[in-house]
Amino acid sequence: MIRKRIVHIALMVTLATVIACNEDEGGAIQYTPDPEVNTVEITTDKAIYNPGDNITFSAHKTYDNAFIRYTHLGNVIEEVPMTGASWTWAPPSQDFKGYMAEVFIKHADGTEETIGTVGIDVSSDWTKFPRYGFLSKYGQMSQAEMESIIGNLNKYHINGIQFYDWMYRQHQPLAGTVNEPMEVWNDIMNRDIYKSTVDGYIQIAHDKNMKAMFYNLAYGVLDDYDPDAITPQMFIYKDTEHSTKDMHELGAPFISNIYLTDPANSSWQEYLAQRNEDVYEVFDFDGYHIDQLGDRGTVYRYDGSSANLSDAFPSFISAMKSADPDKELVFNAVNQYAQQQIADEELGFLYTEVWSPNEGFKDLSTILTDNAAYSNNTKNTVLAAYINYNKANGQGLFNTPGVLLADAVIFAFGGSHLELGEHMLAKEYFPNNNLSMTDELKAALMEYYDFMVAYQNLLRDGGNFNEPVINTGDGKLNLGSWPPTMGKVAAVGKQVENKQVVHLINFTNANNLNWRDTEGAQSTPASIEKAMVNLQINGTVNKIWYASPDYKGGVAVPLEYTQNGSTVNFKVPLLKYWGMIVVE
Predict the structure, then answer these.
(1) 208 Cβ partners below 8 Å, 6+ apart?
(2) Distance of CA 420 to CAs 393, 406, 423, 561, Å?
(3) Beta bridge partners of 189
(4) If we measure between CA atoms, which residue out of 29, 37, 26 comes closest to residue 12?
(5) What is the pLDDT of residue 23?
(6) Distance between CA 308 and CA 182 in Å, rounded?
(7) Axis crossing angle, helix 400-412 with helix 361-374, rounded to the nearest 10
(8) Is the pLDDT reported for residue 25 higher than 50?
(9) How many C-beta neighbours within 10 Å does residue 536 have?
(10) Rounded Cα distance, 12 and 31, in Å
(11) What is the C-alpha separation between 390 and 517, in angstroms, rounded?
(12) Residues 6+ apart with CB under 8 A from 211
């Protein structure tokens, strides 16, 4: 079970205004939590909301002196008493906004203690800020089992789900016919797949306002295909004489190798579009997650001409969209193969499965910034990036520092991470569940996803990355620029309208700069407290605030500062993995 959304944090503010705070001489906000006050679990009824929707919150307990504060990027929208364990809120009507709801206690001495937070996404289109999850097992399941899994994903605000390997065959995803679909079928691994489970998951996901995307290759054929329907002219070959089909070789327990077709072949496009139409007739899927196998080297069409697959995929995507214009498409640009060619196609967001040689943290940021450039800054990116890859060859636990450092980099550079489903993802074969999440990791990731949602308009909604001039004022932060260096805190700048954002990512104790943390050996960073920094800034500063998924539930903490010309000085209360300074 995913742990409850519980935060026990302290925030001191004056009664006069929520943007001023009291600090000790070191700059850290001080408050000793009342031992009689417990934390409160907060959940929302959906993963994402349309403008005009009311949001329903639930809490596992209430307090007589508790209040709820709703904020957007640190600005208070509304503050109301907490009157019960369930309540609703009507957010502002603007589309594509992220909010934070904070439950706090008002103490008699004028201090406030925050006891729970949750992020809220109000967006009419989930692909604007995609948070992609997955499902991979469809055996016979009860309604309660499915609701538990989707309910856990809802706590992380997952708004789209990839149904991995749900289908009967790559060349015939629907088992049976539209009029008589099979109730149970076997997949490529000879696993039993239950129609009732696929249907059940789709319905439960829709109840949470999540979208359901069916997975399939763009060009896969198993060896039990009908040669009258799939002709030799549709395949790609290793030779100009069309004697050897290009093939993805699979051993036992897979039931077949996968033979590859030409995604630009119009007959293949028509064939697969009709098979997809069969799927949509039977299942209430919202779209098609298109997979591929990356660079196949030199391959040929039936007529002996070269088949440049990176140039073939755009026409395939266009054909799939034309066949079902109301359905969403996602395309896996494996290790960026064909990403530049397809970035302008009718895709809601871009998706990259990351492989060697893109193993460094800097490579993640390069992929994310490249994808933004390829799409003229119109599309966000999801990365399929498998953490603790070698460690997952056996049973064990995910290494929390490796996961959180990778997510800190991905989120700070505007991406999201395909990693959560029935279990956490460590391999490209999604059913692999050799590694488990610790309670610490479950708790921390919930804070990271809340943070990504609450501050999505700074993280994932435009702006331009820059290189801030930032220095330590007391030696506590060993600051460096991006890309990161072991032993330093990397500073990543971004200008978003009138806000200068500075991300601090802590590599002070890192023992490597490999995001995959292949063996699960990345070390935990030591927390850095009350660190003075000097930042060069243009113009007059009106406000500085700090937020971190590792600190006080991600609430925006206003900071005291001094400005002398173009230099502002302030203290960062605490940095563990990742923190965000915002100068307005």
Answers:
(1) 45, 46, 47, 150, 151, 153, 154
(2) 18, 14, 6, 39
(3) none
(4) 29
(5) 38
(6) 37
(7) 30
(8) no
(9) 13
(10) 7
(11) 9
(12) 126, 159, 160, 161, 205, 286, 287, 328
Strands 287-291 and 211-217: parallel
b/e per residue 27-48 (b: at least 16 CB within 10 A): bebebeeeeeeebbbbbbbbbb
Q: Phi/psi of residue 367, each to 5°?
A: -60, -45
The residue to which tokens 């089909």 are assigned: 245
Q: How many residues does the chain have?
A: 584
The residues, any chain, with a CB within 8 Å of residue 387's CB and separated by 6 or more, are 398, 399, 402, 403, 406, 419, 424, 425, 426, 515, 516, 517
pTM, two decimal places:
0.93
Taking residues 556-576, what's their average pLDDT? 97
What are 533's strand-pairing partners?
Answer: 472, 570
Q: What would the DSSP string read from start to end of 521-537?
A: -PPPPPPEEEEEEEEE-
- Given a cut of 70, whether residue 15 has pLDDT beyond it is no
Closest by alpha carbon to 27, among 563, 541, 565, 562? 562
Q: How many CB atoms lie within 10 A of CB 135?
A: 26
Distance CA 71, CA 68 (A): 10
Neighbours of 280 (CB within 10 A): 19
What tokens appear for 122 in the block? 């109000």
Residue of 73, 23, 20 whose CA lies nearest to 529: 23
Q: What's the first-to-final CA gap in the chain, in angstroms? A: 40
Percentage of residues in the chain with pLDDT exceeding 70? 93
| The two structure tokens encoding residue 411 | 């989120």
Tokens 């700059």 map to which residue?
Answer: 27
What are φ and ψ of residue 188, in 5° steps? -65, -20
**In contact, 305 and 346? CB cutoff 8 Å:** no
For residue 478, how many other CB atoms are within 10 A of its CB?
14
Going by C-beta distance under 8 Å and a sequence separation of 6 or more, which residues neighbour residue 297? none
Six token digits for residue 454:
């609450």
Q: List strands edge to edge, sheet with 470-472.
A: 470-472, 528-536, 567-575, 561-564
Contact (Cβ atoms closer than 8 angstroms) between residue 448 and residue 404:
yes
Q: What is the pLDDT of residues 336-363, one digit of tens each?
A: 999 999 999 999 999 999 999 999 999 9
DSSP 8-state secondary structure symbol assigned to residue 3 = P
pLDDT reading at 28 higher than 50: no
Residue 1 has pLDDT above 50, yes or no: no
Residue 369 identity: T
d(CA 338, CA 114): 47
What tokens were used for 253? 């327990």
Burial of 489 (0-12, 13-18, 19+ CB in 10 A): buried
Nearest to 483 by CA among 366, 381, 380, 356: 366
Contact between residue 550 and residue 579 where contact means Cβ atoms under 8 Å apart: yes
Residues 6+ apart with CB under 8 A from 356: none
